[in-house]
TrEMBL record:
InterPro entries: Kinase-like_dom_sf, MAPK, Prot_kinase_dom, Ser/Thr_kinase_AS. The keyword Transport does not apply. One of its GO terms (molecular function) is ATP binding. It comes from Volvox carteri f. nagariensis. Transmembrane segments: none annotated. Residues 34-258 form the Protein kinase domain. Keywords: ATP-binding, Nucleotide-binding. The keyword Nucleotide-binding applies. This is Protein kinase domain-containing protein. Pfam families: Pkinase.
Amino acid sequence: MQVEFACNDAENFRYSFAHVARDGACLQDWESQYVYVSRLGEGSYGSVLLCRERSAGEEKGAHGQTTPSLVAVKKFKWAHNDNVGLRLALREIRLLKSLDHPLIIKLQRAFFSRNCRLYAVFPFIDVGCAQSVLSKTYPRGMPPVLLKSFAWQLCLALRYLHQRKILHRDVKPANVLLSSDGTIRLCDFGFARRVPGAELDALTPYVQTRPYRAPEVLLGHEYGAPADIWALGATLAEMARGEVLLRGTSSLDQLWRI
């Protein structure tokens, strides 16, 4: 079928689609593959939707099919009409495709819809993010036994990234998913970067939510893996206390509180 590209920059889209397709992505109809269930969350660069995969039998109207699995689908906000947004989204997808660890969210597939929207599909982790679980279930802090397991797993996930010269740069409870089997998944790699390398100059101080920023990041100095470790510590303290450890109102106030 001939596809008519609707992007502002059709040539740029063709190039980008070819680049992603090289890594196994495809061009597909959104509605033929997924049924929207609910919205899981939304960030600056994308929204995450809970969807149900359509089965082949469902498309044909057959009955008695097994229940399709639920997936989390990230819809990138700016990738369809902004070159910078597209470049950042493609960088995140390429990095995710290179990762293979049981405690890091697994990218199942990425695709462009026929109206040029870029999507990434992940397994649905049933309990939810640690921030939500903390506020709803453990408002005074996670029990020590669970916290110990949480901390150990998050340390393993970060060790895997740092051994591969990857900085996450946005470690916080909202970016750690909890599963009913007791395992975690570190997610949201929109700020993640490989270092050292050509992207070293991209390590800007505008990373992480303020309460999780290391002093060197707040001061605009060079930083590396220790910044992730600082965010890890702030995350564990929050999980233990049930509230943010240091909530500054500005970068200067955050430094004063530290």
